[in-house]
Amino acid sequence: MSKKIAIPTNGEVVDAHFGRAAGFTVFEIEGSNAHKLDLLSATGLQHQHEGLASMFKNNGVEVLVCGGIGGGMINGLNAVGLSVVTGASGNVTDVAQAYAQGKLVSTGSVCQEHDHDHQH
Q: Which Pfam families match (predicted)?
């Protein structure tokens, strides 16, 4: 059975800050393989928990794989049945493949201070 994951993307790498990501690359995970499906635009949805969660649900995404993310956003995503894996970095295709192969372990990395101007 396949599932869809989304990764916040800046070019070809994981965007380190989930809430500021302009787009999310969607992959379909089948067995131990990841297949790139789509790029979802988050323009106008930055730091909007409900809007982002709805976008993911409407596109069949089940898991968000990201670097840094705030606790409020995690709660918002979990509330609509989405799972969150944190601590990812690097090339989005490599990260998706690592997830598919079970090699990506969530670090539990949560942004404690929610300052829109901070850097990770």
A: Nitro_FeMo-Co
Separation CA 82–CA 52 (nearest Å): 11
Q: How far apart are the first and last CA of the chain?
A: 35
User: Is 106 a domain residue?
Assistant: no
pLDDT band at 94 (very low <50, low <70, confident <90, very high): very high
DSSP string computed for 15-70? -SBGGG-SEEEEEEEETTEEEEEEEEE-TT-TT-HHHHHHHHHHTTEEEEE-SB-B
In a domain, 113, yes or no: no
DSSP code for 113: S
The total of other beta-carbon atoms located within 10 Å of residue 42's CB is 23
| Within a domain: 8 | yes
Domains held by the chain: number: 1
Quote the pLDDT of residue 116. 40
